[in-house]
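To whoever is on call:

I kicked off a structure prediction for a single chain this morning and the downstream step that reads the tokens threw a length-mismatch warning. I double-checked the sequence; it's 249 residues and nothing unusual in it as far as I can see. Pasting both halves so you can look.
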Amino acid sequence: MKKELRFSHILAQLEKEKTVAFTHLSLELNVSEDTIRRDIDELAKLGLLAKIRGGAMPRSAHPLTFKDRIGYLNEDKERMALKAVRLLRNGMTVFMDSGTSVYTLVSLLPAYLELRVITNNTALIPLLALYANIETHILGGKYDKEREILTGLAAVKTAEQFRADLFFMGVCSIDLQAGITATNQPEAELKQTMTAASIQVVALSDASKLGTQDPFAVCRLSEVSHIITERDPTDPFFEAYQKAGVHFL
């Protein structure tokens, strides 16, 4: 069983039973207790539960409640977020733009992670405010009510002032030849700026968006460090992209 599915099961059991034991989970999942201990350790580091002797319990004292933070981890975007979170380290400067995948990622950030986040996504502001050690910078610009984002020249000029370790990019479309494209020109222009100002670009996209394209160019696939989808990176579905040098998580 894949790690993300084990995580889903552990947290679902925790929501239902309020405590879980290494021995019981090992039998349920047909893996060793050492594997379960490592899973519990990783989930604890992510701030999603609290370790106790012989197992785990909800981290109910966290400013984001257990239910609010994770649910059952059985949705595609939550699996993507768990993969993305592993790329983060204390002290990083990170661009985050629009999309529900980025929103889900923020909802699952480790509790005490120290980051500087630059975003045009106004929906992220209430979530980011709950983290004591996240410094948030909001890009200015024209407010798009439907997408809950800020775009335009002001946003582009402000983004140009930063140099980021990572850019978590919400994606409209990905194509082997066309690269990453967007439905909206101002949004595409801001994504271009964030891409140029970042050491690594990580695209968050469900697999159904591969092989599609929209009118406005964002970047070539060679400019993207990783693509994170809900699927296993060894899935044959990605073979043509991997042969072209695209890396999946």
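Update from on-call: the warning came from a stale cache, not from the record. Cleared it. Sanity check on the structure: Residues 143 and 150 are 5 Å apart (CA to CA).
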